[in-house]
Amino acid sequence: MKDKHNTKLKLIFEEKRAINLFLWLFYSFFIIFDIFYYYVLPKYTSYGQMGIPKEGLNYWQFILVFSMLPISIYKIKKGNPYPVKYFLLVSYILIDVIDNLMIYFGNSTKFASGNIVELVLIFFSPVFVNKKYFWSVSLGIIGKYIFLGVVLKTTDVLPPTVITAILSAIAYILLIRFYSYINTLTSVYEELRQKEKLAVIGRMSAAIGHEIRNPLSSLRGFTQLQQERYPNTNDFYPIMIQEIDRINSIVNDLMYIGKPRVIHYEKASIEEIIAYTLSITQQQAERQGVTVETIMAGPLPPFDCDEKQLKQVFINLIKNAIEAMTEGGKIEIRVKVIEKDKMSVSILDEGGGIADENILNLGEPFFTTKKDGTGLGLMVTNQIIKDHLGELNIDSILEKGTRIEVVLPIKHK
Ligand code: ADP
Ligand code: MG
Fold first, then answer.
1. Are 222 and 327 members of one domain?
2. Are residues 253 and 369 in the same domain?
3. Mutation to probe ligand 1, out of 318, 357, 368 (largest number of atoms < 8 A from CB)
4. Which one of 269, 372, 387, 394 has the lowest number of neighbouring Cβ atoms within 10 Å?
5. From the CA of 263, how far away is ligand 1's center (Å)?
6. Do both 113 and 7 map to the same domain?
7. Nearest CA to ligand 1 atom 19
8. Is residue 164 part of a domain?
9. How far is the CA of 22 from the centre of ligand 2 (A)?
10. Whose CA is nearest to atom 7 of ligand 1?
11. Are residues 65 and 136 in the same domain?
């Protein structure tokens, strides 16, 4: 929440800087151009006539254009700099159209327009990195010339129209470059931040995990001893051991964050791994009225993997499938060889499915939609599959169910 607020403030700050620069250039060019056009040029060349033309808005043009300045500054100071550029653009075009109509309408003076100020307007679209502004400027100015051409019945508007179009094209290329540059920067920054976050959480979890594991294993040992010593006194020992194991598995999961594990490859049978997984999850499945069907496509070859880790993967996935089916149903596990050298295991459930906006977060540590979830299961699963150079594919339809496919290479190179 605070982050968003900060981003907004920074963006307003950037926009303010851009608009301030814009105002400076706009008014400087406006003044310099007019001095040059009405005083310098006529004095030293035969081009144009000395002084501001009497026909048009005359001094009113300056009064109007300069009256836009305090309004703009007021808007910026109030913390809403965004509309200022449109305000200047629209007012400027309106003033220019009126001025031109007053000068040229109903007489035969040769149309001469085009203004360096328009250049400032056009070339500020990449500075604002704003496509809407770009189209407003380009279409606004081109529209102005076409309108004047039609009303004044002259083709003299063609050169400035063409020049505006060419300059707009250049400004557009710049704008697009800026866009992609900024997008790249943002995504690189995001990635870095994500990695850094993971690294910090990873180090923290590893440190805590390490400290917890040893006392936990002695606690489990003593509990077991106690149970053996007094086998008939108390039913709570099995539950205590079960809960200690649960803590232990969470600690194990935590220690996976952000770092690859060493894998000890051995030949394993997928049938056995799945059978083991089902024996672990069976109780929970029964409690929730979930049945599991396993479909193996013919005899399956032994494959190279870290058996212990893969058991973890399938326990996580099947648990998720069971947990998704709050009202019971069927889970289908299909195992087959694909592309000759890959093992594909898909787990289909009839649970609530995964909302689109959550798909991207799957596998991020601590992402969970469950009341008592840890959000570590898929992260660990992902990591193990990545370590095995395999892939995890997720298809999900809301209210229908989810299909999760694990693809693993059969032979380890
Ligand atoms: P946890 O199970 O502790 O929530 P996971 O990493 O295992 O953490 O899963 C993260 C989230 O992904 C779950 O909270 C759930 O929203 C979603 N999810 C995972 N598997 C499924 C599934 N089979 N059906 C529906 N949602 C799922
Ligand atoms: Mg889970």
1. no
2. no
3. 368
4. 372
5. 25
6. yes
7. 320
8. no
9. 54
10. 377
11. yes
pTM (two decimals) = 0.61
Which residues line ligand 1 at a C-beta cut-off of 6 Å? 316, 320-321, 324, 349, 351-354, 362, 367-370, 373-379, 402
Q: Count of domains in the chain?
A: 3
Taking the CA atoms of 151, 153, 157 and 158 in sequence, report the sign of the dihedral they define: positive
- Over residues 287-315, the pLDDT tens digits come to 999 999 999 988 899 999 999 999 999 99
pLDDT in tens, 364-380: 888 999 998 989 999 99
- 244/326 same-domain check: no
pLDDT in tens, 20-37: 999 999 999 989 988 888
